[in-house]
């Protein structure tokens, strides 16, 4: 079975918000891609970053580390589309509070 690559779609939303939509596997091999995509956003100042994980099929400890690095680089992130398995990992590691609560659907529509 071939590895499923991670794709990252960056979208500039209303009011300076930015969304990173991830699809595929967020793991040891692909985590640097997420960190690099977030680094490109540094020039946007304090623009909030929404990380859409709806299309993520696997997230390992390297993926969690990459999300933490994005959080540090962006100042704060909001996660949406978190699977139940990933939510359990976030809860068990204490990262769910640090990486912020997911936006409600109405909030996502409100920011773009």
Helix and strand run = EEHEHEHHH
User: Which range best describes the helical content: under 10%, 10-25%, 25-40%, 40-55%, 55-70% or over 70%?
Assistant: 40-55%
Q: State the end-to-end CA separation.
A: 37 Å
Rg, please? 13 Å
Q: Compute the average pLDDT.
A: 83
Low-confidence stretches: 102-112
| Number of DSSP-assigned strands | 4
* Structural class by secondary-structure content: alpha/beta
- How many distinct helices? 5
Global morphology = globular
Major sheet, described briefly?
A: 4 strands, mixed
Word description of this protein:
With 112 residues, this protein is of the alpha/beta class. The chain is built from five helices and four strands; from the N terminus they run ββαβαβααα. Helix 2 (61-74) links the parallel strand 3 (49-59) and strand 4 (77-80). The longest helix is centred in the middle third of the chain and has 14 residues, at 61-74. The model is unreliable at 102-112 (pLDDT under 50). This is STAS domain-containing protein.
Provide a concise account of the structure shown:
With 112 residues, the chain is an alpha/beta fold. The protein contains 5 helices and 4 strands.
Question: What topology emerges from the helices and strands here?
Answer:
Layout lengths: L6 E6 L5 E9 L4 H10 L8 E11 L1 H14 L2 E4 L3 H10 L1 H4 L6 H7 L1
Parallel strand pairs: 2-3, 3-4
Antiparallel strand pairs: 1-2
Protein name: STAS domain-containing protein
Pfam family, one: STAS_2
Organism: Micromonospora noduli
């Amino acid at each position: 079975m071939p590895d499923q690559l991670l794709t990252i779609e960056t979208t500039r939303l209303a009011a300076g918000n930015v969304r990173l939509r991830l699809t595929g596997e967020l793991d040891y091999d692909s985590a640097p891609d997420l960190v690099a995509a977030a680094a490109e956003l540094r020039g946007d100042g304090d623009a909030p970053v929404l990380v859409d994980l709806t299309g993520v099929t696997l997230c390992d400890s390297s993926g969690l580390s990459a999300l933490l690095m994005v959080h540090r680089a962006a100042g704060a992130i909001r996660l949406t589309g978190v699977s139940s398995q990933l939510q359990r990992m976030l809860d068990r590691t204490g990262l769910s509070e640090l990486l912020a609560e997911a936006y409600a659907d109405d909030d996502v529509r409100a920011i773009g």
